[in-house]
Automatic annotation (TrEMBL):
Residue numbers spanned by region Disordered: 239-279
Entry superkingdom: Eukaryota
Keywords linked to the UniProt accession: Repeat, WD repeat
InterPro entries listed in its UniProt record: PAK1-Kinase_Regulator, WD40/YVTN_repeat-like_dom_sf, WD40_repeat_CS, WD40_repeat_dom_sf, WD40_rpt
Protein name according to UniProt: P21-activated protein kinase-interacting protein 1-like
UniProt source species: Durusdinium trenchii
Start-end of each WD repeat: 4-33, 44-85
Taxonomy of the source species: Eukaryota, Sar, Alveolata, Dinophyceae, Suessiales
Biased composition (Basic and acidic residues): 254-265
Pfam families for this protein: WD40
Amino acid sequence: MGELQEHEDSVAAVQFWGPSLITGSSDGQVCIWRCSDYELLLKFRGHKASVTCLAVHPSGRMMASAGRDQRIQLWDLTRGTSAAHLSVLEAVEALEWSPDGQSIAALSPRDLVAVEVASNSVASFKDPASAGFMRVSFTAVAWLSSKVLALGDGRGQVQIFEKEGEALTEVCKVPRDGNVTGRIKALIKVNARLMVGLSTGLVEVWSLGDLKAGSFTLLRVVDTKSRLTCMTVWAPGQGSQVLEDKHPKGKRTSGGEKPVKKEQVKQSGKPGKKKPQRS
């Protein structure tokens, strides 16, 4: 369909949200594009190093980005401005909003941090063995409810934590077969199911019962016969929310950058076209 030419370095994160595409790059910039005509709506400059991950708030009015500058940045998408920022000890590699949108989980290889946005209270968990030679990295995180988190690691273990104030307390573990090996590469919660993707290529589907009692039921295991690196789930009937375009052309963003014109979006192999053809 075409190319979007704006970033000055490798694109490190992409996410569709309604009719918009959000991109983050090693140049520290985050761009929001309107997919109907590929116009650049907003460009944020909030990181001094590579952007590692993005997460749009369930309301579609706010977005979080994390970078290798050990910084989590919150953006107000309705105004196109920076809302807040938080410094962390390690570069965050995954961000996940809670279902009610009140908290955001930030995952680094050795730390899991859950931040309540309104009160700015921070709850964290660090692997007690993280300082040793045999440390095991955290690899995936997912909210199971507004207060309960699932955390996956490099041993193939999935731990369940409950957030209470400024504490993350482990309540149980997902039962594992002793023969199962590999790193947890993805955790996705859909309705009352938890999808677990392993680096060995296995995809597990678990039924969630009483989380505090640890009543999990393994419903199915699928072997993809490939080295799994990432995973997403499409659930029929789940609608996506929309980012509203409230920014007139030419309006300056918080980073002092003026959105580019459509002429900067070139169709692959057809110079001179202002925008790609849509199928």
